[in-house]
Design brief:
Residues 1-116 form the Phospholipase A2-like central domain. Its main location: secreted. The chain is mostly helical. The chain has a single domain (2-105), classed as Phospholipase A2. Helix content is 39%, strand content 8%.
Length: 123
């Protein structure tokens, strides 16, 4: 989805970016792109509070005239899958809105996030 919306690879452009993109976010987001990842983490956190497993709940999506439409996978948890899709969709659009401030220096191939501090920003 991220590639369709931004033209960039989710993994190669965003994994390990800043303090929240990728696994184990904490600290203060370094810029607007990192805030997109923080918001995505919060979105997934809310789904988990409602019994969903957003990483495991699959979904389908299509793009019509540049707009993402979320759908269900047959045999899956439709509500949880659609909600996970909505989280991912918001994140992709957020990345697109902030392409002009994306800073390659904030992406680490092997992110330690040691510069981010210990505390997680509240949702």
């Amino acid at each position: 989805m991220v590639r369709h919306i931004t033209g960039r690879s989710a993994f190669f452009s965003y994994y390990g970016y800043g303090c929240y993109c990728g696994l184990g976010g904490r600290g203060i987001p370094v810029d607007a792109t990192d805030r997109c990842c923080w918001a995505h983490d919060c979105c997934y956190h809310k789904l988990k509070e409602h019994g969903c497993q957003p990483i495991l709940n699959g979904y389908q999506f299509s793009i019509v005239n540049g707009t993402v439409a979320c759908g269900c996978l047959p045999g899956g948890s439709c509500l949880c899958g659609q909600k996970a899709c909505e989280c991912d969709k918001l994140s992709a659009y957020c990345f697109k809105e902030n392409l002009d401030t994306y800073e390659k220096a904030f992406r680490q191939v092997f992110p330690s996030k040691s510069q981010c501090g210990r505390h997680k920003l509240r949702c």
